[in-house]
Structures are given as C-alpha cells and as structure tokens.
Amino acid sequence: MSTISQWQLRAAFAARLSEMYGQEVPAYTTLVDVSREVNEEVLRARGADAERQGSIGRVTAERHGAIRVGTPRELAQVARVFGALGMHPVGFYDLREAAASAVPVVSTAFRPVDGEELARSPFRVFTSMLTPADPRFFDPDLRARLEAFLAARELFPPELLTLADRAAADRELPTKDAERLLQLAVASLELSTEPVDRAWYETLERISAVAADIGGVRSTHVNHLTPRVLDIDELYRRMTDRGIEMIDTIQGPPRWKGPDVLLRQTSFRALAEQRAMRLADGSVESGALRVRFGEVEARGIALTPEGRALYDDLLGAVDEQASHRPTETRGDIARAVWEQRMPGTEEELAADGLAYFTYRLADERPRDGSEPPATVDALVRQGWVRATPIVYEDFLPRSAAGIFQSNLSGEGTRDNDKEGAAYDAARLSGAIGRDVLDPYALYAQQQANSLARVARELGLPDI
Ligand code: OOG
Ligand code: NI
After folding, report:
1. Per-residue pLDDT of the chain in tens (463 residues, 90 and over written 9)
2. Would 128 disulfide with which of 59, 107, 239, 368, CB 3.0-4.6 Å?
C-alpha cells in the first residue's frame, strides 16, 4: 500500500492552500508572479550567492499563512491538524502589547523544526488566539457572550482530527486517507459562505476588527498567504507600479549594505469581499467585509538572543531619532543607525555571537598534514571549515503588529487603565496541552550539532 509521509502532506497542503487562495484572492496570484519574477532575476544577477539562505526551489515554493482562532480548545485542534503535517508550535508573540490599536490576541507559529524537514518544505502558519479574558478589551458581559458563541462552534470536523492524529502517530498516511485529510484541512480554512450575523459582528468590531474576524463568524479562514522574495525593495516597487497600494513601509530591518538578518515584510490590503449578512429580523442581505490581505517577506540570518537584543535596541534608537526628524524617512534613519551599530559582515556577526550558522568541513581545506586549530573562528579563517547562515524561520512581534495594524480600518478600543490578563509561552503551552518551543533553542541546537560533527571529523575535542 502506498503511503504519503508527513513532509509530503505538508508540501501538498501548502500547494493546495496556495491554489485555493489564488482562486479566492486574485491579487495573491499577482504577488506570487511578481515574486517569482524578482527571484529569477536575483538568481541570474547574484548566482550561487543568492541561494546561500535556501535553494531557489525552496524559496520559490516557500509560504507562510496566517489563521486566527478563538479558544485554547480550538488552538489545541489546530495543533493536531498541523501536527499531522510535521508542524509544531514555536515561539510566543503577544500582539496585545505590540500594536498601537486594539489587537486582542496572543500568537505562535506552527512550523517544521528540524533542518532536513525545513529544507524539504518550510511551510509555516502564524496562528493567533483571541483573549476574551483580557479586561482591557472585553467587559464581563461581552466576554460571556463571546465565550458562549465560541464554545458552540466547530472549526474542524471530527473526521479531520481523527485522520490528523493517525498521521501524527504513524508519521504517514495511506494515499486515500491522505487525500481526505488534505481535502478536509483545506476546506476548513476556506472563507465560509454562511451569512454573518451583522449585529453581533458589529458589536465585536467596535472593540476590534480582529475580534470580529475571529469571534463574529462560525468558522476560521486563512487571512493571508505570504511568498518569500529575494529582493523585497524591488518587489515593492513593482507591485506599486502595477497599481497595488502597498502599506507605506517595509517592516523589520532596513535595506542596508550588511547581511540580511531576521525578516523584512510588507503587505497590501485586500479588496472588500461580498458576504451575506443576516439582519436582526432574520432576513439576509448582501454586504462586504475586508478580512483578507496580501503579504510578502524576505528572510535573513537568525540572530542569537544577544543579536536580537541589539536589533531591538536599534529599533528603539530609530524610533527615537524618527520622532525628532520628521522630514527624514524612517528607512534612511534606520540605515544610518544600522551602518553605525550593526556588524557589517557575516564573519563579524559570528565572531560576536550575534547570529547562528551551521559549519561543515571545507572541500578545499588544508591537506598538508598540518593540525587544525582549536577554535571555530580560526577554523573558518584558515579555510578548514565553512559557515553557512541559518535562516530565520520565525516572526517578529513588532512587524506582526504592523501587519495586523495596516490591515485594520478602525482603531478599536482598549482600556489601558485596566490590568491585562497575563499570558506567556508557558501558559499557552498549558492551554493547548503541548510545548510551545523556544526558537532560540532550536537554532542553537542546529548550530551545536553541526559543530559537534565538524569536531568529530577533524578529531578535535569540543570546539
Ligand atoms: C497575522 C499577522 C502577522 C506576520 O507575518 O507577521 C503575520 C494575522 O494577521 O493574523 O502574519
Ligand atoms: Ni504574515
């Protein structure tokens, strides 16, 4: 009997979701086409160098999606569905704090965790969960109504969850079951045609458009699907030239002369889509909602906690300077700050312990019988070992807040005099009954494994 492995399920799921989303949101297809065009040009111009952070095959197929759910129970079900595809919750993002207007969610990202799995298919889904218990957003009455509404809906059919548990346990599924799982999983993330209860939706919308998007309807949906591009500035220009109105910034690090680090993202608001609305008297009329959008991203080297602290520090410095110099663009200010304070080469980032790399023996290493040196720096400098950057596979809370933000219309309401409900990675782990993994630990492990192997191959003690 032929079977489909987890990574094949994941790759097939990403491809089908992409096909579905392209049919539902035509601007997404434009984005994918322009991304491919830019990637091919970058590859031609930069050759092998363009593939240092992932093969062109990987980058071209690479996507992340985003979904939003309402309760820990629903998030635990999401974890089962993605667990079937070899995707695990990594990282904790508190968007309640990061956004200027009301975004009452906490988030994690489901993604493959080991290097080989990432190379096969790096598909990831940024997944947010509403926080009805946060009194800054919801009063006790609305919280109770919201929780009752959420408790009564079913996002994922039992058949899907049963198949998902089997795929996770067996790490594969027979072809026929795999087909069924993929169908049910994609269908559960399509935009529903069920009429929206207008009064209820608007009640939540007054608090936050995100709350309405999550708790105002009886289903969930993928709200964007993001291709990866090798030159995001060029992509931004081309999309603008095609008349697609992008948000006014690229989130994350500036364009600068040093290495690409972490993640740069930009987005555009999707058009309003026609949706059936149910009115108080039970009649249905046609309305429109804007709930889906487009986003694109460029990925760079993963930073260590020290590197990340520096990144956050620079963000603060840029904010500070931008507030005093309203005539200069944020990009120009950021570039100047980075050129002053961020190490400008991969070698320096590695030497300062600011970024993660994997190491392997160089093909052209000395073979004259000389002894290899005992430190990583010296091994690299003397040509024994080559360093390859580890790509950042995760997200940035401030950028994510910017993406949420730029796609909202109203400000919503948040009562900052109240104390927010506490939430962190440990609580989220408890709520969904599985570990939310620490991204730094994953990168550090990947780096350490590669160094252990190099040490073994060279007959060195630990390096
Ligand atoms: C998620 C927004 C964040 C990203 O790439 O940072 C995000 C959402 O709108 O649900 O997708
Ligand atoms: Ni996104």
Report:
1. 799 999 999 999 999 999 999 998 888 999 999 999 999 999 999 988 889 888 898 899 999 999 999 999 999 999 999 999 999 999 999 998 877 767 899 999 999 998 899 989 999 999 999 999 999 999 999 999 999 999 999 999 999 999 999 999 999 999 999 999 999 999 999 999 999 999 999 999 999 999 999 999 999 999 999 999 999 999 999 999 998 888 888 999 999 999 999 999 999 887 788 999 999 999 999 999 988 989 999 999 999 999 999 999 999 999 999 999 989 999 999 999 999 999 999 999 999 999 999 999 999 888 888 889 989 999 999 999 999 999 999 999 989 988 887 777 777 788 888 888 888 999 999 988 999 999 999 999 999 999 999 999 999 887 8
2. 107
Give the structural domain span for 30.
Answer: 3-194+203-230+393-400+410-432
CA of 223 to the centre of ligand 2 (A): 9
| Rounded distance between C-alpha atoms, residue 352 and residue 354, angstroms | 5
Residue 46 lies in a domain: yes
Domain containing residue 62: CATH number: 3.10.180.80
**pTM for the predicted model, two decimal places:** 0.95
Alpha-carbon span 436 to 427, nearest angstrom: 9
Report the alpha-carbon distance of residue 383 to residue 149 in Å, rounded.
Answer: 63
Q: Rounded distance, CA 135 to CA 72, Å?
A: 18
- Which atom number of ligand 1 is nearest to the Cα of residue 251? 6
Ligand 2 center to 449 CA (angstroms): 30
Atom of ligand 1 nearest to the CA of 265: 5
Ligand nearest the Cα of residue 107 is 1
- CA-nearest residue for atom 4, ligand 1, is 400
Q: Which two tokens stand for residue 33?
A: 């086409």
Q: Is residue 163 part of a domain?
A: yes
Which atom of ligand 1 is nearest to 128's Cα?
A: 10
Give nearest CA residue, ligand 1 atom 1.
Answer: 66
Q: Is residue 388 part of a domain?
A: no
Pocket of ligand 1, beta carbon within 6 A? 66, 68, 126, 128, 223, 265, 295, 395, 399-400, 403-404
Nearest alpha carbon, ligand 1 atom 10 = 66
Cβ(252)–Cβ(318) under 8 Å? no
Q: How many domains does the chain have?
A: 1
355 lies in a domain? no
> Does residue 134 contact residue 96 with C-beta atoms inside 8 Å?
yes
Cα separation, 230 vs 56, in Å, equals 9
In angstroms, what is the span from residue 452 Cα to ligand 1's centroid? 36
Ligand 1 centroid to Cα of residue 386, in Å, is 35
